[in-house]
Amino acid sequence: MSELSSDIQYLPGVGPKRAALLKKELELGTLDDLIHFYPFRYIDRSSITPIVSVTPDLAYVQVQGRVVSRNLINIKHLSIIVEDGTGRMEMVFFKGVKWNFDRLVPGSTFLFFGKPQAYNGRINMVHPEVDAPQADPNAKGTLTGVYPSTEKLKTAGVTGKTMCKLQRGALALCLPEIQETLPDYILQKYGLPPLVWALQNIHFPSDAGALAAATRRLKFEELFYLQLSLLKQKYVRSRASVGLVMPHVGAAFHACYNALPYALTGAQQRVIKEIRADMSSGSQMNRLLQGDVGSGKTMVAVLSCLIAIGNGCQACIMAPTEVLAQQHFANIQKYLAPTGVKCALLTGSTTRKERRPLLEGLADGSIQLVVGTHALIEEPVKYRALGLAVIDEQHRFGVNQRAALWSKGPLMKYDQRSGAWVPVSVSERPAIPLEGAQGGDLSLQHVQPHVLVMTATPIPRTLAMTFYGDLDLSVIDEMPPGRKPVQTMLIGQNRLPAMYRFMRDEIAKGRQVFVVYPMIFINEKMEDVSNVEQGYEDIVKAFPLEEGYKVAIVHGQQSNEQKLFNMKAFVEGRAHILVSTTVIEVGVDVPNASVMVIRSAQRFGLSQLHQLRGRVGRGAEKSYCILVKDPKTGKDAQQRLELMCATEDGFEIAEQDMKMRGPGDLEGTQQSGLPIDLHIASLVRDGAMLDEARNCAQKVLDSDPSLDKPQNAVLQRELRKGKYNIKDYSNIS
Ligand code: ADP
Ligand code: MG
Fold first, then answer.
1. Model's pTM, two decimal places?
2. How do 61-74 and 109-114 pair as beta strands?
3. What's the pLDDT score for residue 670?
4. Does the residue 12 lie in any domain?
5. What is the mean pLDDT of each run of 10 residues along the chain (733 residues)?
6. At 389, is the secondary structure helix, strand, or coil?
7. What is the spatial distance between Cα 512 and Cα 534, in angstroms, rounded to a whole number?
8. Domain end call among 476, 507, 538
9. Residues within 5 Å of ion ligand 2 by Cβ?
10. Is 598 in the same domain as 500?
11. pLDDT value for 437
12. What is the CATH number of the domain that holds 297?
């Protein structure tokens, strides 16, 4: 049996008991696991601190001193006083008492290493590591790795020193067996040291330079394989999928484009070009479109749909909520007016009577564009030829919906003569297309429509490259002209009266105001509406009907009709104030609204706050976002709120959010936790290296797409191990 795969318990110094603990606490089962378990930081053992400058706030110190006295307080408590010419310090032992008593003979000098602490007004160290003194105190020492550990491990005697000993033993056994994981040409090109050297030096660096080189090598390897695996997936899919070739732009596109009331921004134009290139390429498009709130994604979606329509296909736009679907539909119809394209709305509340002609229209192709909720991809809906699906606010659509989407693609037939897939004409269609195609005629298949996923939750670049690394990415990084900055303020509850006065002033100017409350989940399903209802009462008291104020309220517990009715009152300007929970979070467009008040703002995440703020600043001369915090606002929350006041750039907010909270816990990434466990690389800190690794992976695949060349055999082998497979994470791929 190879050493690498052998059980950790047979390593000298481990044994079954410790092995069980190492498995349970750190998931270390084999020697291979152990040698890939790296220190999370290093202590510079080369520096010796004079006792006089030791303070309890130092994490670790190393002092070198002469034992002046040893005092056996009882059988389980040994106190040693050490002196180094600058001062005296106590070392305390509750374990290994006899052994330490015997070796720490007064008059002899030792090196003590540990965490200083204040005790009874003095500084001591409990259980310091004790070593022979350094012959030359100026000699260059080594960096000592500190490994992640747990209380249980420490109690069981697996100290930092033990861990170092185990690593030394494991490396001695394993290094001769270690196979290099990167091809020579990559090591050379990127100036990376071999794996064996890197492993040796990540655990026992000979100096800071060696540590840096080892770290870089191991990080690069991780990021490289992550990207190689993603890009390979993408490559395989694009080769396997039959794309609908859409060579034309079409009359509808031009008609819409020419009638636009504004010029597209440079970013919108660029993104439309990217999409158009994808749709005419012959492979299936899988593109993620990121653009901040208000950056004009809808227009891009509509023009993309018109390309599909211009090529004889249908298109659909899916929104996450009914309200949004309605709003999209209303907007889109305006854009479509000059095109003659027939557009319909399909949601959960479409009545049965309306539904029938609608389904017929989709099946026979007379309805070319349909806007709606996930009802669009539910079972009874059949399209004649769905060529493009636009999914707005991607993170709310799940894996099952993706599968459902594929089966809605147009039916194609393999034409033996030309060796290509061609659309099945209506007359050729089997009576029950879906089942018929899959059960019987193998030359018939549904072709996956092109997919454009749009998200307004800016995701840090490194996360996007990981979560959506197998999608193509387009970014709208430019706002339409005329968008006014939103002034953001953070206030406490004591300033509420002043805020009400301010709201009255704005309303007097003809503006409207949002007041948003957080949703509070008492248990799994129940939403506490008392918060928003109480808020509504407060607002109505401060803005009474007798004085002419009209206040609308919208929350999740209302029926759809109620919600729509109240929302409409606000959208159409009949209500001055809209009190709501976060149901208005995405997409709602009320250009006349100039104030966004967010109550209990500390309860919201950064990206949610950013989304909410994006509801204003869309038309009014000047807009405001007022964050009202509760008295008990924690330090982290305070920091988030201050960041909101400091910047309006969604991407910057997302980056900062990731820095504050770590990459595994971001909103908009759906699950917390990353799709892959990175041992050493960090998506927060290693962005530049991620680019380098992705470029490298891309180049490798460009020149050897199936990794068949001998020099890439090692890449095949490593990928097959499955270590870098991405867990099912994204909703669309
Ligand atoms: P989002 O990206 O948040 O979905 P929308 O598509 O809703 O943004 O656009 C926000 C607003 O900006 C809409 O009122 C839209 O009409 C307007 N808009 C979009 N593109 C432009 C442009 N190029 N110039 C001016 N206004 C634009
Ligand atoms: Mg939108």
1. 0.67
2. antiparallel
3. 35
4. no
5. 85 92 92 92 81 87 93 92 94 89 93 88 88 64 81 84 93 94 96 97 91 95 91 76 82 95 94 94 85 88 96 91 85 93 93 93 94 87 90 62 69 65 57 40 70 81 73 85 86 95 96 88 50 88 94 86 87 93 67 93 87 83 92 87 90 80 48 60 83 94 93 93 61 32
6. strand
7. 20
8. 476
9. 587
10. yes
11. 39
12. 3.40.50.300
Q: How far apart are CA 452 and CA 389, in angstroms?
A: 6
Q: Residue 714 burial (CB < 10 Å; 0-12/13-18/19+)? A: middle
Protein residue closest via CA to atom 17 of ligand 1: 296
pLDDT at residue 201 in the model: 95
Which residues line ligand 1 at a C-beta cut-off of 6 Å? 262, 264-265, 268, 291, 293-299, 456, 480, 589
Nearest to 62 by CA among 43, 37, 86: 43
Supply the DSSP symbol for 483.
P
In the reported structure, the alpha carbon of residue 297 is separated from the centroid of ligand 2 by a whole-number distance in angstroms of 6
What's the confidence (pLDDT) of residue 520?
62
Whose Cα sits closest to atom 1 in ligand 1? Answer: 294
- Residue 51's domain comprises 47-140
Question: Would you state the torsion angle of the CA atoms of residues 598, 604, 606, 611, taken in this order, to the nearest 10 degrees?
Answer: -50
Ligand nearest to the CA of 391: 2
Picking from 597, 578, 573, 572, the residue whose alpha carbon sits closest to that of residue 495 is 597
The predicted structure's pLDDT at residue 410:
73
Q: Is there a single domain that holds both residue 643 and residue 513?
A: yes
Q: How far is the CA of 659 from the centre of ligand 2 (A)?
A: 27
Predicted pLDDT at 310 = 92
Joined tokens for residue 184: 């020579």
The size of the chain, in residues, is 733
Cβ-contact 55, 151 below 8 angstroms = no
If asked whether residues 95 and 62 sit together in one domain, one would say yes
Query: Maximum CA pair distance of the chain?
Result: 103
Number of structural domains found in the chain: 3
**Which residue's alpha carbon is nearest to atom 20 within ligand 1?**
296
DSSP-H helix ranges across 647-721:
650-661, 687-703, 713-720
Residue 491, strand partner residues:
628
Domain end marker among 140, 155, 173: 140
- Reduce the secondary structure of 534-582 to three states and give it as a string: HHHHHHHHHCCHHHCCCEEEECCCCCHHHHHHHHHHHHCCCCCEEEECH
Q: Partners of 372 in the beta sheet? A: 318, 346
252 Cα–ligand 2 center, Å: 22
**Radius of gyration of the chain, Cα coordinates, nearest whole angstrom:** 32
Residues 504 and 588 in one domain: yes
Which pLDDT value is given to residue 686? 85
Counting ligands in written order, the one closest to the CA of 477 is 1
Q: Atom 26 of ligand 1 has which residue's CA nearest to it?
A: 480
**Atom 23, ligand 1: residue with shortest CA distance:** 264
For residue 591, what are the CA distances in angstroms to 481, 482, 660? 14, 12, 33
What pLDDT sits at residue 673? 46
One domain for residues 543 and 436? no
| Cβ neighbours around 274 below 10 Å, total | 18
Query: Residue 552 burial (CB < 10 Å; 0-12/13-18/19+)?
Result: buried
**CATH code of residue 52:** 2.40.50.140
Task: Quote the Cα angle for 22-28-33, to 5°.
Answer: 150
| Residue that has been written with the tokens 């993170």 in this structure | 395
